[in-house]
Specification:
This is tRNA (guanine(9)-N(1))-methyltransferase. This protein has 136 residues and is α/β, with parallel strands linked by helices. The protein contains six helices and five strands, in the order αβαβαβαβααβ. The chain has a single domain, classed as Alpha/beta knot (3-Layer(aba) Sandwich), CATH 3.40.1280.
């Protein structure tokens, strides 16, 4: 993947309607599932990985930031393809580190398979398993 870095804001570099802010707090998981049906062209969009350099989770912070900037939001389709797995701590989290989100997106780009992409980026420690492996 080719990447450029710049001190400029994404708001100054791209049209607002092209920006999709990725946040686990978005209700829009269907946005990504429509890639498979060809209704949305990923290359027409700019994806901002909503992340924080912090060890704690601040619920709704990235969603609020996106809304303040009048941006479309989306989340990875974890709820659509995965289920909560029983675990000793009863812990389940859809919040991923930026590198995990990048792994999911790059695997999806290569395979066009959400199950494969989610398997690559969502660790078992998050408390989710793919629906087809629920009983394994």
């Amino acid at each position: 993947f080719k990447m450029d870095t710049t001190p400029e804001s994404y708001l100054d570099l791209f049209p607002l309607d092209a920006i999709v802010y990725l946040t686990p707090d978005s209700e829009n998981g269907k946005y990504f599932t429509c890639f498979r049906q060809g209704r949305t062209r990923a290359k027409d969009k700019v994806y901002v990985l909503g992340g924080l350099v912090d060890e704690s989770i601040h619920k709704q912070l990235t969603l609020r930031r996106a809304r303040e900037q009048s941006l479309q939001t989306a989340r990875l389709p974890i709820r659509e393809y995965m289920v909560k797995a029983p675990n000793a701590r009863n812990y389940h989290s859809e919040t991923l580190a930026i590198n995990q989100v990048f792994d999911v997106l790059s695997t999806y780009y290569e395979t066009r398979s959400w199950p494969a992409a989610l398997r690559a980026g969502v660790s078992s420690g998050k408390g989710y398993v793919l629906r087809d492996t629920e009983e394994q």
